[in-house]
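pls ignore typos typing on phone
GFB + seq
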Amino acid sequence: MKNNSPKNKVSIKENFVTLVTGSNGLVGSALRQLNPQNTVFTVRQEVDLTNFSKSKSLFKKVKPNRVIHLAAVVAGIGGNMMHSGSFFRKNLMININVLESARLAGTKKLISFMSTCIFPDNAPYPLHEKNIHDGPPHPSNFGYAYAKRMLQVQSDAYRKEWNCNYIVAIPTNIYGPHDIFNLEEGHVVPSLIHKCYLAMKNRTPLEVWGSGKPLREFVYSEDIAKLSLWAVDNYEEDTPIIFSSGKEISIRDLVDLITKSMHFKGEIIFDSSKPDGQFRKPSDTSKLKKYLPNFEWTPVEKGIKKTVEWFLANYPNVRL
Ligand code: GFB
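k done
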């Protein structure tokens, strides 16, 4: 592995204060484990970032040189369909407040996160950073996607007027410990782990939404945490960068990995009355590969096993 690989670069520049927003989430929790120097972690319970004056006070107090902005209201396909309006409003407010507070506090570098679900529904494959605004998103995450797209717009506008070095990453489907294991609104990995646990406990079939045919690129939270530390030090482009291994797996194969990790031997039912969402969203990983040709992604088999182990060790004290 080359020396510039994030595997060898988990600490960030000394004498710089880094502020991480949304520290209790998937990537924030993984970042805490990496224990970067001079880093302040903030959570929703401490500071309501939808409130501009609270957000401004936080930045005034911490005076961060750099920010890893992870705070967001997120969910899987179920939550996104149910809360289109509130996800739009809250995410827009959080992002408007955080980027403006950073600017006022003189923050030199800020990385924020979108997601591959924000791409236009009819975008050409593989999904490329340049196409994010070329059409409406898939209807299943309309409000969330439009709010997240504005992160790129705000970052670009701030760069143009105030020369802010604010960059944007686009991870694919992140999973790992500390996720939200809600049965109806969670992302597919945590929801299915929890459902599988209950199916074993209650001796009932495991009900999987949709046909099992859609394909996703799952990325382990710790890998994204390492990449965010790399990017905040090294990525300077005014266009976003996709964070993905580029490896697709079907929901059916994901179910197989989860049930094997949990030793579930019961019946599995695919419920076609539930939404499949986008069929696939393969991403163009060439930009990331150009910078980090040797980045070692956690294989999905290993990541699922670690997530299941974490869930079993922490249940019922998991986020729901
Ligand atoms: O994680 P998920 O909700 O996100 O995965 P998306 C949805 C896929 O998993 C669909 C299937 O094909 C579902 O039919 N699935 C099967 C399930 N069983 C379940 C289940 O129990 N729960 C869930 N949630 N899905 C997301 C956006 O879309 O993409 C997020 O909603 C985020 O905001 C993420 O941006 C990257 O991949 O469809």
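The pocket of GFB is lined by residues 74, 76-78, 80, 115-117, 141, 144, 173, 186-188, 191-192, 195, 208-210, 214, 216, 251, 274-277 (CB under 6 Å). Residues 18-176+217-247+282-298 form a domain with the Rossmann fold fold (CATH 3.40.50.720). more later
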